[in-house]
Design brief:
mainly alpha
Amino acid sequence: MSRWFTKRIFLITLFIIVFILICLFILPVSVPIIIALITAMLFEPLVKIVEKKFKWKRKISVMSIYIFFVGLLAALLYYTVNSLIGKIIQFTKEAPHYLNKLSGVWIDLQSKMSNYTAGMPPEFVRAIQDEFDKMITSIRSSLTSLLSSEKIMVLAGEIPNFLVSLIVFMIALFLFMLELPNLKQMVFRHLTDDTAKKARYMMSRLNSVIFGFMKAQLLVSFIILAVTFIGLLIITPKYAVVMSLIIWIIDVIPILGSIIILAPWSLYQLISGDVGMGAKLAVLAVILLIIRRTVEPKVMGNQIGLSPLPTLIAMFIGLKLFGFLGFFIGPLVVILFNTAREAGIIKLNFKL
């Protein structure tokens, strides 16, 4: 037993156990800090460019980039939240009018159904009416559940947690941006020369991949913005600018994306009687979903060095396992594996 239970195996087993415990208990509550670290790593090439171009010290470069980022984030949040609040207030004012209009549409629809189904078997007519009644009841219950006081209270209760997470993220981001070189030195201090060489290769490879990832996301988002703006300019020119920007920001949410905005908007127009506009918004939502699901894996695969199929699989599995962050973690794990294999850390020279 002592032959195989060596000190190395004991340390590896201990490391695996600690890693599993961290993943289960620490990572779920450390999301703002992890995002801050990843964001600081993304900003690191920009910090070095500013240092080199303007001959500034690191602290000044970090402060300038941080202030610019905070200002841009604050402007986007203010513009988006202000627009959404305005739309919500307008919706609550006009809701009684649209509900009355919906009742009139339902009465008119019933009268038309009576004319269209004249002469048909009573059982068939009754079945159609029952299905329509079920559909209206389902829509009414869904709207009631969505606008219930319990849901609103739960959403309001999450606001303090979001604000705390946002404050922790902003503070951690600034500190990580300042201390990132020291953190790297601290990690490399515990590595051998050979391992440090492989780690530096992996970091340089990851920097290029992360830059490619950001470039791919930016390119896809601009395509979505352009298609959304053109579509809304044709459908509803009055709200084209505001809603295209809101959809552009919301579209970063994996799988759903623009559907979160366009689907309720389309349903609202259909219920209010504007079938033409509702159908056009639904078509636009489908077009944006197709563009996101087909163009994104291709563009991202080209930019980060992965083929579209592994990229799509990694994004989907990551999303299912880790939620929103898994959309980025999935491809990153595949990239880490490939980079470690290229650096010689992982060797797969075997045959079955």
